[in-house]
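Possible regression after last week's pipeline update?

I re-ran a chain I had predicted before the update to compare outputs. Posting the input and the new output here so someone can diff against the archived version. Not blocking, just want to make sure nothing changed silently.
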Amino acid sequence: MDINKDAINQNLQQLSTWKRLFFMLVFGIIGELLRLLLWAVIILQVVSTLLTGKANENILSFGKNLSLYSYHILLFVTFNTETLPFPFSDWTATTELQENTDPNSAQKN
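New output (post-update):
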């Protein structure tokens, strides 16, 4: 295996790589906080369903948005997208993921 030390040094000096690493750490922390918030939403939805017999539409919508935001963070930290998640980009960048992940919007063959 031939390793080009000059190429490695050049890669290590790229500011964009270090910026992405910083944002990955920031969004890793945000993702963990988000996971706790999602558990709170789950518990609220279960309680709401037990008390009313049906899912609360507001909690459903909020939970869906949090899930999509979490998905956007995961795409970013796994290098599957270059678009920074909210608040470093517009919220619509996250909500556009809904169109790509919603099975009801997929074209039927």
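Follow-up from reviewer: compared with the archived run. The radius of gyration is 19 Å. Marking as no regression found.
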